[in-house]
Write a structure and sequence with these properties.
Blueprint (H helix, E strand, L loop, with lengths): L2 E5 L4 H12 L3 E6 L5 E2 L5 H15 L5 E4 L10 H24 L5 E5 L15 H6 L5 H4 L7 H19 L1 H6 L3 E7 L5 H7 L5 H6 L10 H12 L10 E4 L3 H5 L5
Helix pairs in contact: 1-10, 2-3, 3-6
The chain binds 1,4-dihydronicotinamide adenine dinucleotide.
1,4-dihydronicotinamide adenine dinucleotide binds next to α1, α3 and α8.
């Protein structure tokens, strides 16, 4: 039986992924703020280290899969916390658990990014310098120009940086035999999306936009893609980003290939 770690395992896409993996016969170690196998606050360096240590302890240093899913939505009015959870909460776990994945069987990892990753480029990403220097103390200032929409700016920046981080690791991870990809969901019906719909700044635009397929995604639909990417049928899929958004990105940016 293979063992996969899922962060953000108690809600939304993470919970659906945990359920789908279990149904497929895999052991799952869930990580979340509460109610999970491993409880840890991924917004802090100590919490991220504690999560890595606890997972390594539980899996005896050998892991077959990792899904970095925990995240905060753009409605959260704390850019530093958004970047800490959505970027560092994923990348520090990827890096901290890489040695255990190398020791696994047919190992693979998936990071949950977002279609928002393509809302800016690496060249215009306000946290690119922080990512490259490792000094995240200036995040608030870096996104301040977005005013009351700084949460959205930080969210897109963190997701863009996460997708770049995965691509940057493709050579080293591929040589080690560990596949690594991102999924980039559009609007998926979860507590995170519903909080955005209830937010006075974002609610109208979220409710007013419908993907070409005419609905939001369901968490289990994203989980299906993640399970595929972790499994042997995706054996040549590496360093790639999979948009899963009901056609929204194609409708908004038809020429962006
Ligand atoms: P959700 O709110 O249902 O689940 C997020 C999970 O992350 C929760 O279980 C929460 O407790 C956990 N989490 C938050 N902060 C944490 C922290 N500091 N430490 C540990 N765990 C923490 O949200 P959803 O929608 O399932 O989001 C999952 C991922 O999918 C996120 O990374 C999100 O950015 C991404 N995503 C979601 C979209 C959507 O429309 N729902 C669209 C695109 C991406």
């Amino acid at each position: 039986m293979s063992t996969t770690v899922v962060t953000g395992s108690t809600s939304g896409i993470g919970a659906a992924t945990r359920a789908a993996l279990r149904e497929a016969g895999h052991a799952v170690v869930g990580v979340d703020l509460s109610g999970a196998d491993v409880t840890a606050d991924l917004s802090t360096a100590e919490g991220r280290q504690r999560a890595v240590d606890a997972v390594l302890d539980r899996c005896s240093g050998r892991l077959d899969g990792l899904v970095a899913c925990a995240g905060l939505g753009p409605h959260v009015d704390d850019p530093a916390r958004i970047v800490a959870v959505n970027y560092l909460g994923a990348v520090d776990l990827l890096d901290g658990l890489f040695p255990a994945l190398r020791a696994g069987s047919g190992p693979a990892a998936v990071a949950v990014s977002s279609v928002a990753a393509a809302h800016l480029t690496w060249e215009t990403n306000p946290i690119a310098a922080a990512v490259d220097s490792g000094d995240f103390s200036g995040v608030e200032k870096a996104v301040a120009s977005a005013g009351e929409y700084r949460g959205q700016f930080a969210y897109a920046a963190a997701k863009n940086a996460l997708t770049v981080a995965v691509r940057r690791r493709a050579v080293e991870w591929g040589a080690a035999g560990v596949r690594l990809n991102t999924v980039a969901p559009g609007a998926v019906d979860t507590p995170l999306l519903r909080a955005g719909e209830d937010d006075p700044r974002y609610g109208a635009s979220i409710r007013g936009f419908t993907a070409p397929l005419g609905r939001h995604g369901r968490p289990d639909e994203i989980a299906s893609l993640i399970v595929y990417l972790l499994g042997p049928h995706a054996g040549f899929v590496h360093g790639a980003q999979f948009v899963i958004d009901g056609g929204a990105d194609a409708a908004l940016r038809p020429h962006a290939v």
